[in-house]
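does this look right to u?? calcium ion version
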Amino acid sequence: MRSFVYAITLFLIALPCYGSRLELSIVPVPEASPTTPLLNGQIPHSRVAHGGGVIAKAYLSSPTRRYAHRVLGDEVEAASLTLVLDDGKELRYELPESRVFEDLEPRLVNLDAKGPDEVMADEAVPDKIVVVESDSKLGASLAVYGLSKGGVEKIAATPFIGHAYRWLNPIGAGDFNGDSVIDLALVSTPHIGGVLKLFSYTPPNLTSYAQMRGVSTHSIGSTALGMGRVVKGELKDLILAPSQQHNQLLLLEWIDGKIVEKARVALPASIGSDLVPAGYNQWTFRLKNGTYYTVKAIP
Ligand SMILES: [Ca+2]
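got this back:
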């Protein structure tokens, strides 16, 4: 009997080491990364995406004050998207007067990959740009741009949210439902009740197939857009995102048509920065109390 109890006790102690979890550890304050000068026409506070294929760089350009929403740190948004090709040629896509790119970082992704492994593979050259495009009457949508014979073209987009001054924050690309087709994840209206939404890439549309309330990947006025990340899984990818109150991190997985919480970890204070890559399925971030932590996701 005693050996049976001992075995059960050992099993219970060992149990937390298996299954999905988020491991949190405090880390020293990292060195600040150097700031880089803005490129030709680049909007303030924005970041340049670097690609390894025909598209060498992508950035948001043509600063404009024509859509004064101010959720991304100032009243300046981008009226155009600029691509710098590997031969040095510059292509600029101008939006109509009623639109802006309400974003700080065009995301270069490979949406034609066949599953989780290929997205990360060296030979998978990212050739699509994922960016937030806002309409003066309809608010934000997530748009995908790419190269065409004539220059830059819009390839696919979600519907606009439907109201001016309603914004969404992209999380990234991955195969979240395991059908070997790459999808896009975003958080719609992160400041007023965030909804995580998953979309299939079905040009000319992005087709919504699952959503879940209760997450938020942005604070109003912040230039940090990367509080949510894609977690690489064996058969499908998962999502790491803060709770609506920013005081917990959630590991979320699409299972049989629903987004399910696989793990959750409480933070000692609210999250105050991007999740910065720090290894495989591992990110470092700052809390609003000034301390730094690393979170490791085990799907
Ligand atoms: Ca998929």
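DSSP finds two helices and 21 strands in the chain. idk if thats expected tbh
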